[in-house]
Description:
The complex is a heterodimer. By secondary structure, chain A is mainly β. Chain A contains no helices and eleven strands. Chain A has strands at 4-7, 10-13, 18-25, 31-37, 44-50, 53-57, 64-70, 73-79, 87-94, 104-105, 109-113. In chain A, the strands form two sheets. In chain A, strands 2, 4, 5, 6, 9, 10 and 11 form a seven-stranded mixed beta sheet that branches. A four-stranded antiparallel beta sheet of chain A has the order 1-3-8-7, with no helix packed on it. The radius of gyration of chain A is 13 Å and the shape is globular. Chain B has strands at 3-5, 9-13, 18-25, 32-37, 44-49, 53-57, 60-65, 70-75, 84-91, 97-99, 103-108. In chain B, strands 2, 4, 5, 9, 10 and 11 form a six-stranded mixed beta sheet that branches. Chain B has a five-stranded antiparallel beta sheet with strand order 1-3-8-7-6, with no helix packed on it. The termini of chain B are far apart. Classes of the chains: A mainly beta, B mainly beta.
Amino acid sequence: ETGVTQTPRHLVMGMTNKKSLKCEQHLGHNAMYWYKQSAKKPLELMFVYNFKEQTENNSVPSRFSPECPNSSHLFLHLHTLQPEDSALYLCASSQVLGSAGELFFGEGSRLTVL
Amino acid sequence: GQNIDQPTEMTATEGAIVQINCTYQTSGFNGLFWYQQHAGEAPTFLSYNVLDGLEEKGRFSSFLSRSKGYSYLLLKELQMKDSASYLCAVRDRNYQLIWGAGTKLIIKP
């Protein structure tokens, strides 16, 4: 596989469930990102990891918990979510954090919270 | 605050030309990106402008005027597959990406 792969592509969960989103990049990049995409709104940056270290938490509620075990993998652990958390969650990577290079995105995990 | 403005939706005809505008107010400027996102798919990189002027890449061109805080994406010889959302993003002085809400482009035969 090449590029950025996200699983699952679709997820439906109740407010009391615990689930995880997974992201894997095969590009040899050192920076990875979680974004939230809601309809007709700008992409919202949630978390940034650079060389496995979290460098940014954009005031994200604690019901979202990221994990980056290595530079190729990124997880987003979900628990006690709210219906307003329903959105497309995009993972992205870039060669180096803070460089002029572009982001490479996965196809996203479409989350529905009932 | 920082802000990116682009039209919510545009409609154009197959074979025609369309220009999608983007205006920005950001804390500093370190480049402007355009991404294309088909429904249900990943955003993909289209173009990058850091200096004033026009960057051409096949049917797509992107223009930047830093003094006006303005960019546009020009799509020529439109094809049905160009129906997608087009996202404008600016990298600010801290290299943070500030995103617009995207422009949904509808191509009609």
